[in-house]
Amino acid sequence: MKNNLIGDVEERLVRYLSETYPGRIHDKRICDEEELVFPSDIGLFQDTGFQGYHPAGVHIYQPKKKPKGKELTSEEKAENKIISSIRILIEHIIAGVKRCRIVKDVFRNTKLYFADQVMEIACGLHNFRTTLRYNTLE
Fold it and tell me: In whole angstroms, what is the distance from residue 51 CA to residue 101 CA?
């Protein structure tokens, strides 16, 4: 099972969760089918699974691959490092969602929309934990 999510790196919250798809469906195809609409002039940090996905009015940031038989320039390496340091925050959000064991283990329930509900609850719990954590520190 697979979902795409969009996270807010400033508040470390899940802002969007796609429907649940079978694991064999490609990430970019999920985005194409969901027909996401983004506010203009925002930055979208993608991994290589979304190569070729360019929504209108959005600045795409994706790590550069090393060309075959060549090396990346020092500027490209520095840019990749900045992109990775931001994307790691999204990976932390995903890890926070996966703290719910039912999300990361093999899911054997066949009830209609139950997988969607489980993922929504896990994202809600992550957002709840994160909000409590950062509101108590202020």
Answer: 30
| Phi, psi (rounded to 5 degrees) for 7 | -115, 155
- The mean pLDDT value of the chain amounts to 89
DSSP bridge partners of 5: 17
Three-state secondary structure readout of the chain: CECCEEEECCCCEEEEECCCECCCCCHHHHHHHHCCCCCCCEEEECCHHHCCCCCCCEEEECCCCCCCCCCCCHHHHHHHHHHHHHHHHHHHHHHHHCCCHHHHCCCCCCCCCHHHHHHHHHHHHHHHHHHHHHHHCC
Closest CA to 8 of 104, 123, 99: 123
Question: Which one is predicted more confidently, 126 or 52?
Answer: 126
Asked if 75 and 101 touch (Cβ cutoff 8 Å), the reply is: no
Amino acid letter, residue 19? E
